[in-house]
Design a protein that fits this description.
The structure is a homodimer.
Chain A: E1 7-11, H1 15-24, E2 30-35, E3 39-41, H2 46-50, H3 56-59, E4 60-62, H4 63-66, E5 73-77, E6 80-84, E7 89-92, E8 95-98, E9 101-104, E10 108-109, H5 128-147, H6 151-157, E11 159-163, H7 167-183, E12 197-201, H8 213-225, E13 228-231, E14 236-240, E15 243-246, E16 249-252, E17 255-258, E18 263-264, E19 288-289, E20 292-297, E21 304-306, E22 309-311, H9 315-333, E23 348-353, E24 356-361, E25 364-367, H10 368-382, H11 389-402
Parallel strand pairs in A: 1-2, 1-9, 2-5, 9-20, 11-12, 11-17, 12-13
Antiparallel strand pairs in A: 3-4, 6-7, 7-8, 10-18, 14-15, 15-16, 19-20, 21-22, 23-24, 24-25
Chain lengths: 421, 421
């Protein structure tokens, strides 16, 4: 008789998939975790790679290394192309894999709302490669400005636009302002980096719309103090290599970053179940796909409704869902029923810049240094298992105390800065 | 009257160019340093990025940041296409620049001895991108092996060939053996990474031919102890995606790294002066190009002869030449004559692996832990001005004490591992 009750296949090594695998480690099931990439990414700190404060390896770790002690878990690097729910198979680019239970945790990316041509001019921030591309563009823009004799063109190189004022957009805009005002201050001879302008453009009426309005006000005031031009109610009409059209106005800017919209992983379509507008699976209250008792969805791909509102898109939700799904699978293999999922909100916090953040912990709302220190502590705590929390803390200390962002490398395909299209 | 006696243009921000610029900082000359990249690279440690021990930012630093306090030095990111010696101009991809004195320090890269088709199968190690490409290939090879059911194909994925047993080749081979035997030991389920084979192929009769033969013997013994197959007198006849032909034998290997040959920067050709076989400038004894009193050559691009033998290719030589050239230019602008260059050899050391190295310090030759500690101290010392020597030391301590190489990320263009051509 086989030792293991069931074969659980987990697609995706983000927060949901990884925590599901950890929870199943050492349990009487056989687990295979698949990911296109070899590393788990600590996504909440990805903007720090894009802004040259941290190294890729500070926030990414090989998935198989995290799970090396879970002997019943096999990690494979592979690309899933679709799911054959009738035959309980995952189809891969180069093979297939049968499952008894499937945990679908392939997440979501940003959405250009149908304007895919904008992607070339306004990269989003989902992967290490995205972060390095943004870092390269920002640093190259200052290099180009230093070499550009024409003042109008130079100003366009020194103008940065972030679209979308969710947490990622706010964090990016704050960090760009810091780079211009503090980090690069002495590095140039012909330009003064402090002349750079940073725009944060948000279609909605306020920044950080998922937080209480009082915190939005605090965050916006902090951004303005740091030198960010905050444009709320600003609908992006067009983006090209020369700038952004916001409503009827045009901002001449050579560097635009996209931090808006949600587009679910296309794998969800192959389930044949109802999806929401962003393509996320409208899961049952136990996180199963409707009508598919062996398919579980966790993390950003799950449109889970609580009190009539979808909750998704935050790391703590994905972690809790991943664990819940793992425990439910164990219950099912033992012959009992899964329980419904409830999210325990332990608080939300968003950092804006050096010693500036806003936090909402179970209705207690605060900002400033206290929120920033809380943010710092919690993120250090959750970097458990990462390369080296001490090194990351060291890097941060260096960034914040010395105003030096150490990872200011321009790598990858580099033409002469003035030749960028 | 102008404050500055002359405009000095430095091409290249490697060791030679950077130390020339530092030496000219604050002196009565105007200096412009050009580089295609925004960063100076601490090349002696580049193999540690290729082997996942260090981050790119640990060994690379923005050139303009190093020189930020030298107010008479302007750093521009630009690509020089040729030199118009008659009109004392550097032609750029997007402009031109006049000089009174030119310091040509654009270095050299590896050479495939006319077999450029090998480059696709056997990348060399000169840039951050090269290092990340090698890191990706090595890590992907283990991922592919874990998924490959056929034992012959699997063995080819688990075979690694390094061509060329100079310092870089020796360091790479030693590090690959460590990765297989220690770092990845627990990470896989279907393969045992310790079954991997690492070949170091050298056409000459011994490894590290620039050192005393007794040290070559020590280094080879250490490599063998670490599990490296050392093949001396092995001429590479062919390289393709399936492996390497060495003499009459074929090694089936999916991962090959090239660490042989020298090809000088093609800019040297536009000087119209005699070059050696590798394309390096046969400089006068004061490091000037023959017949061009305002063109100075320093670093790997200079074929400087001492006692009838060309000395080149090591960081200390480049540093001393860069400084010498800077001092000579100041002498010339003051109306005196430059002096001839002499290299002060303070010792050569090559690391092989954890607690293993060989050193030759003014004829005193030693190996083992003592040489390794000496190597460590000297490299830490020379990382002055880098992001953060403490962080690098911390990373090393982590690598060596815990056998964990923290930067094991596969980034860049990634297809499914089994699909690599």
């Amino acid at each position: 008789m086989e030792n293991h009750r069931a074969h659980v296949v987990i697609l995706g090594g983000g927060f949901a998939g990884l925590y599901a695998a950890k929870e199943l480690g050492g349990k009487p099931v056989r687990v295979t975790l698949l990911d296109r990439r070899n590393h788990h990414l600590f996504q909440p700190l990805l903007y720090q790679v894009a802004t040259a404060a941290l190294n890729p390896a500070d926030i990414a770790i090989p998935i198989r290394h995290v799970l090396r002690r879970e002997r019943n878990v096999t990690v494979l690097m592979a690309t899933a192309t679709s799911i054959d729910v009738a035959n309980r198979k995952v189809l891969l680019a180069d093979g297939e894999l049968e499952y008894d239970h499937l945990v679908l945790a392939t997440g979501a990316t940003h959405s250009y709302f149908g304007n895919d041509a904008w992607a070339a001019h306004a990269p989003g921030l989902k992967s290490i490669e995205d972060a390095l591309e943004i870092r390269k563009r920002v640093l190259l823009a200052f290099e180009a400005a230093e070499r550009e004799p024409d003042i109008v063109k130079r100003n366009a190189w020194m103008t940065f636009v972030v679209v979308g004022a969710g947490p990622t957009g706010v964090e990016l805009a704050g960090a760009f302002a810091e780079i211009a005002r503090r980090v690069l201050r002495d590095d140039f001879r012909r330009i003064d980096p402090r002349d750079a302008r940073v725009f944060l453009v948000e279609a909605g009426p306020r920044v950080l719309s998922m937080l209480d309005p009082s915190l939005s006000t605090d965050a916006q005031a902090e951004l303005v103090r740091m030198g960010v031009d905050v444009v709320t109610g600003g609908r992006v009409m067009a983006i090209d290599s020369e700038g952004v059209k916001v409503g009827e106005n045009r901002i001449a800017a050579r560097t635009v970053v996209w931090a808006a919209g949600v587009a679910a992983s296309p794998l969800a379509k192959s389930l044949g179940v109802p999806l929401d507008r962003s393509g996320r699976v409208k899961v049952n209250d136990d996180l199963r796909a409707p009508g598919l008792p062996e398919v579980w969805v966790a993390g950003d791909l799950a449109a889970f409704e609580e009190n009539g509102k979808v909750i998704a898109g935050l790391a703590p939700i994905a972690i809790q869902q991943g664990r819940h799904v793992a425990r439910s699978i164990l219950r099912v293999t033992e012959g009992t029923s899964p329980e419904r999922f409830t999210y325990r909100d332990r608080g939300t916090m968003v950092t804006i810049g050096r010693a500036a953040a806003v936090a909402d912990v179970r209705g207690v709302r605060f900002g400033g240094l206290a929120a920033w220190l809380a943010w710092l502590l919690i993120h250090i705590f959750f970097l458990v298992g990462f390369r080296n929390r001490l090194l990351v803390v060291g890097s941060w200390a260096y960034v914040y105390l010395r105003n030096a962002r150490g990872s200011r490398l321009i790598t990858g395909d580099v033409r002469s800065p003035l030749q960028r299209p």
